[in-house]
């Protein structure tokens, strides 16, 4: 971690705070939605009801003794937090463990008939099939005639703002849909990003959400491969369903099929990506650490080596940003380059702001945001940032 004083770790135990609302309201809403989305049997209904009760009123319980990843979770702090309230442990840990427990409850890890059934798939598919996705794909036809650098900028912004498409966000809001408030970049290091995005070599992209975020991520990768900006891309996705909409291998396949089946320019992108996977220029990686309840500062040696060797690692989304700089209450003017200094290679964050963590703002920007919105700009998903540490 950076060699600067450590700010407080974010917990979920302050009523009225955003993290508290996620644990007290968002998680129960997610359990209820999943319960309704599948024709689960009575045993699974009872288990889901017990999880609902436990995550509001109970304490953290260990994974079953025969869980395939028991040792991993013990290494990630499970014993230390067993018996604590969900609200009193680091929020990042609590949230990650909630998703692990939810998957256990619905039988995802099996054995049994529900093994491998993604409890969030109906929500992901609805988004992929939505008319808005068609509109976004049709817009590619207009873009196709533009100069390559203009296309690249449009695709980068598509990937950035695609991060607003976060189903966890929508499943738990009273008025679903895109936030209507003013949009804007609170930090923009794009000028430092372009040379890194066009210097050939390997691009690692740590993906976030499936559907309407993953599609623009893939389009950006396709463009960079096609124009020789990168030689190879590695797409890091989640090994199992996580934070509702996070992309898994199945979601990558769904997104590629969606592109390939679309009319016009979208299909050409789909074919390009399909063959890039077949010839090894595009690789999908589902490392267990991608679902770890820990900051990237604690990444294992194999990931460290991989990111050190990459020309650039692009970190997408809010949760990955929290993990990149640490889920800490940084003073917002802390330089991003200090918070991410430990990262083993050049790294860029593309994120819309959906939680309290932020670094790299200049004092004037922070003051203007606070004057206009108090602290709501941190969590509303209406602002975004592009930050680089090289
Ligand atoms: O990583 P993403 O999809 O951009 O956002 C994930 C998110 O919705 O989940 C967390 C709350 O559960 C917050 O960090 C953030 O708002």
Automatic annotation (TrEMBL):
SUPFAM superfamilies, A to Z: AF1104-like
Cofactor(s) required for function per UniProt: Mn(2+)
GO BP term, example: DNA damage response
A Pfam family the protein falls into: ARMT1-like_dom
Superkingdom field: Bacteria
Record-linked Gene3D superfamilies: 1.20.930.60, Uncharacterised protein PF01937, DUF89, domain 3 (3.40.50.10880)
Keywords: Hydrolase, Manganese, Metal-binding, Methyltransferase, Transferase
Residues annotated as domain Damage-control phosphatase ARMT1-like metal-binding: 23-366
Catalytic activity: beta-D-fructose 6-phosphate = dihydroxyacetone + D-glyceraldehyde 3-phosphate; beta-D-fructose 1-phosphate + H2O = D-fructose + phosphate
GO molecular function, one term: phosphatase activity
InterPro entries referenced in this protein's UniProt entry, alphabetically: ARMT-1-like_metal-bd_sf, ARMT1, ARMT1-like_metal-bd
Signal peptide start and end residues: none
Family (UniProt): Belongs to the damage-control phosphatase family. Sugar phosphate phosphatase III subfamily.
Name of the protein in question: Protein-glutamate O-methyltransferase family protein
């Amino acid at each position: 971690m950076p060699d600067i004083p450590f700010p407080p770790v974010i917990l979920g135990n302050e009523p009225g705070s955003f993290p508290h609302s996620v644990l007290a309201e968002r998680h129960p809403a997610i359990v209820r939605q999943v319960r309704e989305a599948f024709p689960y049997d009575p045993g699974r209904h009872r288990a889901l009801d017990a999880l609902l009760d436990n995550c509001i009123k109970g304490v953290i319980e260990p994974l079953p003794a025969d869980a395939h990843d028991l040792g991993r979770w013990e290494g990630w702090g499970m014993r230390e937090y067993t018996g604590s309230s969900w609200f009193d442990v680091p929020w990042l840990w609590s949230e990650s463990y909630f998703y692990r427990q939810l998957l256990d409850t619905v039988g995802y890890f099996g054995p049994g008939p529900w093994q491998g059934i993604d409890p969030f798939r109906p929500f992901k598919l609805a988004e992929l099939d939505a008319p808005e996705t068609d509109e976004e794909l049709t817009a590619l036809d207009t873009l196709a005639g533009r100069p390559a650098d203009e296309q690249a900028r449009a695709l980068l912004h598509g990937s950035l703002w695609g991060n607003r498409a976060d189903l966890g966000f929508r499943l738990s809001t009273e008025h679903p849909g895109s936030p209507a408030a003013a949009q804007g970049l609170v930090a923009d290091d794009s000028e430092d990003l372009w040379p890194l995005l066009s210097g050939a070599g390997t691009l690692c992209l740590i993906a976030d959400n499936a559907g309407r975020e993953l599609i623009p991520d893939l389009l950006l990768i396709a463009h960079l491969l096609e124009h020789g900006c990168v030689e190879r891309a590695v797409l890091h996705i989640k090994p199992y369903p996580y934070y509702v909409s996070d992309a898994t291998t199945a979601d990558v396949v769904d997104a590629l099929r969606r592109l390939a089946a679309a009319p016009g320019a979208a299909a050409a992108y789909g074919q390009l990506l399909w063959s890039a996977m077949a010839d090894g220029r595009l690789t999908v990686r589902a490392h267990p650490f991608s679902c770890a309840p820990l900051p990237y500062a604690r990444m294992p040696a194999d990931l460290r080596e991989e990111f050190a060797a990459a020309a650039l690692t692009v970190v997408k989304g809010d949760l990955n940003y929290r993990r990149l700089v640490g889920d800490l209450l940084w003073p917002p003017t802390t330089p991003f380059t200090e918070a991410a200094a430990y990262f083993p290679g050049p790294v860029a964050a593309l994120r819309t702001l959906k939680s309290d963590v932020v670094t790299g703002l200049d004092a004037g920007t922070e003051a203007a945001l606070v004057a206009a919105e108090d602290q709501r700009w941190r969590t509303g998903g209406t602002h975004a940032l592009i930050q680089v540490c090289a």
